[in-house]
Specification:
The chain is of the alpha/beta class. Among the domains are: 51 residues; 126 residues, Nucleotidyltransferase, domain 5 (2-Layer Sandwich), CATH 3.30.420; 107 residues. Helix content is 45%, strand content 9%. The chain has 14 helices and seven strands. The termini are far apart. The C terminus is likely disordered.
């Protein structure tokens, strides 16, 4: 009887222990899920805080000034440029820019010695035995503006008695107005993305003429209207359509309480900008890309994929940043990213060498070896991360699949070495002043119209080097 009771009691204890174990197992699963979620969150935050302009699309201005060197790393170079490729300063073969003496200076001032530096005797009457020329080139103060008065005279015909008035020049309208040169210089300042108020200050300091801020703002509209009516922008768009490669980009702009986008299409010497949203219709509104059959150099934004008449080239610098971000965070697990970056930079140098030699294609064996190595590294990146469950591994898989899916776009600079299309830096340099002007104007524009005018007008023809 006692034995039966013991067995019953043991069974009850066993049942309770099973319930405790089952509850603990459920709790462990919950804690395991929480731990994994927290690990992913920590990894995500660590990667986010480790991103800067060298390993992401963030602009250099967003890099914190107090964290230029990561902890534990001294002399860390955040740039993707290779160190030691060429020495700093003037490059071999570059032209000289030394300021030289002129033969007919505007003013000459003689500086003779007043007394002997040895005994102190007066030398004012002694002849000059030698001299050394020095010249200082400086800016003269802005002269006072020239005021020209036009008097429209009237005369009465002695034969019929009709009174006739003389005609004024076309630029003379109001009783008092600013002349064509003042308009031209004001438009030049506005076109270089200088804010309106500062443009008025610069015009007064450099040209000696003071104009109201409102007048300066109106010059932008006048200039844009003249450009539009002249057909100049249509001519720029037509020239861009004939280029072998066109660089494109877009950037958001705050205007009229909303967000608009400034769209850009450019080459080294021509730039065309317009505003709109981020849709395909807005991209086409510039009149350059629809029907274009050359090569469009761009980033990974899918808004350009509808432009099927052209070939596309993916900016390799953007990809190098992504590879750097992976390798910096997990150097042991993402060695393929380092190797792929080395392959791309090596291919860039090979393409540049072929371009210098006037070759339209790379040698067959070089191209074949490069393509094979590229495919092997893309496969290695996918294999190394396919079974890993982390945010970094997911990004690595996404990047490796991008290399496989968009091989033609990424390696366009290799298959067309005759064109300098490794990066989209040309477009980023051309569109950067828009952000500078917006930042110096308080971070936004009050109305959309100045935004439209400002970005239709400036840099439509980039200066020659």
């Amino acid at each position: 009887m006692a034995a039966a009771q013991d067995i019953t009691r043991l069974r009850e204890v066993n049942a309770r222990l099973r319930e405790v174990l089952e509850a603990q197992a459920v709790q462990l699963e919950v804690l395991k899920g929480q731990q994994q979620a927290l690990s992913r969150r920590v990894e995500e935050l660590e990667r986010k805080t480790g991103k800067d302009s060298s390993n992401s699309g963030k602009p250099p201005s967003s890099d914190p000034v107090w964290d230029k060197k990561p902890a534990g790393k001294k002399n860390t170079n955040r740039s993707l440029r290779e160190r030691g490729a060429r020495p700093p300063g003037k490059q071999p073969g570059a032209g000289s820019s030394t300021l030289k003496l002129v033969d007919d200076p505007d003013e000459t001032i003689w500086c003779p010695p007043r007394s002997c530096s040895g005994c102190g005797q007066d030398l004012s009457g002694e002849p000059v035995t030698a001299e050394r020329r020095h010249q200082v080139t400086d800016i003269r103060p802005a002269p006072a503006p020239a005021v020209t008065e036009y008097r429209a005279q009237a005369k009465c015909c002695p034969g019929c008695g009709t009174t006739s008035a003389g005609e004024l020049p076309g630029h003379v309208r109001a009783r008092a107005s600013y002349g064509p040169e003042t308009h031209a210089q004001a438009a030049s300042l506005i076109a270089h993305h200088v804010p309106v108020f500062r443009s008025a200050i610069l015009l007064a300091q450099l040209a000696g003429i003071r104009v109201p801020t409102g007048w300066m703002a109106g010059v932008r509209g006048k200039a844009a209207a003249l450009v539009a009516s002249s057909g100049f922008m249509d001519h720029v768009a037509a020239l861009l359509k004939t280029a072998g490669a066109v660089h494109v980009d877009e950037t958001p702009a705050r205007a009229a309480g909303g967000t608009r986008y400034v769209h850009l299409a450019c080459t080294r010497y021509l730039t065309c900008l317009h505003t709109g949203d981020r849709s395909a219709e807005a991209i086409d509104a510039g009149g350059v890309l629809p029907g274009y059959t050359g090569i469009i150099v761009r980033d990974g934004y899918k808004g350009y994929e509808h432009l099927t008449d052209a070939l596309h080239a993916w900016c390799a610098v953007h990809i190098l940043r992504d590879l750097k971000a992976l390798y910096d965070f997990e150097p042991d697990q993402q060695a393929w990213a380092r190797d792929m970056a080395g392959l791309l930079t090596g291919a860039r140098d090979a393409a540049a060498a072929a371009r210098r030699d006037g070759a339209a294609v790379l040698p067959g064996d070089v191209l074949a070896a490069l393509l094979a190595r590229y495919s092997d590294l893309a496969a290695a990146g996918l294999t190394a991360n396919v079974y890993r469950r982390s945010a970094t591994a997911a990004d690595a898989r996404r990047l490796a699949r991008r290399f496989r899916k968009y091989q033609d776009l990424i390696l366009r600079f290799v298959t067309r070495p005759d064109l300098d299309i490794f990066s989209n830096n040309e477009a980023e340099r051309a569109i950067r002043p828009t952000k500078v002007q917006m930042r110096s104007s308080g971070g936004c524009w009050r109305t959309l119209q100045p935004d439209r005018v400002s970005y239709r007008l400036p840099a439509t023809a980039a200066p020659l080097p």
